[in-house]
Write a structure and sequence with these properties.
This protein is an alpha+beta fold. It has nine helices and 20 strands. A six-stranded antiparallel beta sheet has the order 10-15-11-12-13-14, with helices on one face. Strands 18-17-16-19-20 form a five-stranded antiparallel beta sheet, with helices on both faces. Helix 1 packs across helix 9 and helix 6 crosses helix 7.
Length: about 400
């Protein structure tokens, strides 16, 4: 019997169409690269969304990459589901969960990558680690405006407000106090990711403004860290760490990102630029210090991945954002279980770009082989796979999965 291709379905929140009815996928270059690499590795890759599952026929429709771009077609039910959902509303989230639950009843699958909870839970898990705690900015939830002003007075540089579940720097705010002028200065990015500044001479006016800005969104407070270089441009280092074919955590690449002078964030969606991490770190801190920092990135990233996996279930990859203050101290700012990897293409790091694409595929294949080693072909018209008695080992969508 012939060994069958592994079927990897990339689930996304939604797939739009342009005026010519052509599909508009959220990350087309990434999915195209995964599809091309999958062909070389014996993995059939396609993209699907909640509306792709037809319950009356038990048929799944997905989008495959080809010379003419992505085209919609019937696809076999997946063995592995790669979650790349970036939801814009509760309705999308609910539709996706319902679809995945129905899909699991038709054919059990394994979720490639788990997800992380809100930032405060991630912080609480990491701060219990004696080494990692030294690299975490103190974090607490926002209760009210009075608490915020008290902390802004306490910390010399003021405080940073972050949405508890935010991404791409949207909604981040720096609040600083000027005691001589008896004023409060605010700098940040709107929910639409546009930069803004404001000044308030009365606390009452500021309290009203900040609570209107926050509304009902859970926010976190952290001390403001001076993470800008001599050019006044904020910078951070994005490290991508992934599972390989042996289920071991390995750093795939690192890129240094800089923002515009005087702004708060350096992410690419907010107008930031990407550079090779080793090159710019050496220019900023010297070769010796740069090499030490890169070693720290590797060590802390692996410890972080292992800690988060132990607390929140199996993961496949993480994007970790680090800041470095003027003294050279390293700070872990963010952990993202659905990381982007466009930085590597921008900086021309072909090895990091290759690893970032291949490692999820190799890990998916290793999961399938380990959990169902007797995968065989069934060349029926519907293209579905039949498994051996190890089917009962395959479980549906579950972010708390403990298998590694």
């Amino acid at each position: 019997m012939q060994t069958r291709l592994v079927i990897l379905g990339i689930v996304v929140a939604s797939i739009a169409h342009d005026r010519d009815s052509k599909p508009v996928l959220p990350e087309p270059s990434f999915y195209g690269a995964l599809s091309a690499a999958g062909k070389q590795l014996g993995i059939d890759v396609y993209v699907f969304a909640a509306d792709g599952l037809q319950l009356h026929s038990e048929q799944l429709f997905g989008y495959r990459s080809g010379q003419a771009g992505f085209t919609r077609q019937p696809v076999p039910l997946p063995d592995i589901v790669y979650d790349r959902c970036f939801f814009t509303g509760a309705g999308q989230r609910l539709d996706c969960r319902r679809m995945l639950s129905k899909l699991a009843r038709l054919k059990p699958y394994r979720l490639l990558n788990g997800t992380l909870p809100a930032k405060l839970e991630v912080y609480e898990a990491l701060k219990e680690h004696s080494v990692l705690a030294k690299h975490l900015p103190h974090t607490q939830p926002l209760a009210d405006a009075a608490q915020l002003l008290k902390l802004a007075d306490h910390f010399r540089g003021g405080v940073i407000l972050k949405p508890s579940s935010g991404m791409q720097g949207r909604g981040i705010v720096h609040v600083a106090r000027c005691p001589l002028e008896r004023s409060t200065l605010v700098k940040g990015r709107s929910r639409q990711n546009r930069s803004f500044t404001a000044a308030f001479t009365e606390d009452r006016a500021f309290k009203q403004w900040i609570m209107d800005f926050v509304k009902h969104t859970p926010y976190l407070i952290q001390p403001y860290l001076e993470l800008s270089g001599e050019d006044n441009k904020p910078f951070d280092v994005r490290v991508l760490i992934q599972k390989d074919e042996k289920s071991s955590w390995s750093v795939s690449g690192a890129a240094l990102r800089t923002g515009q002078a005087g702004t708060l964030t350096s992410n690419l969606h907010g107008g930031g630029l990407a550079y090779p991490a080793a090159q710019l770190l050496s220019a900023k801190f010297g070769k010796f210090k740069s090499e030490r920092l890169l070693e720290q990135f590797h060590t802390i990233s692996k410890q972080t991945a292992e800690r988060l996996e132990n607390n929140f279930g199996r993961l496949a990859e993480l994007g970790l954002d680090y800041g470095i203050d003027k003294s050279g101290r390293l700070w872990l700012l963010e952990a993202n279980s659905k990381p982007g990897r466009s930085s590597f293409q921008i900086i021309g790091d072909q090895e990091a770009e290759r690893l970032s694409i291949e490692r999820p595929l190799l890990y998916a294949r290793s999961l399938t082989r380990r959990l169902s080693p007797s995968f065989v072909a069934n060349e029926s018209a519907n293209g579905r796979l039949h498994h051996s008695s190890t089917d009962n080992l395959l479980r549906p969508f579950n972010v708390q999965e403990v298998h590694r």
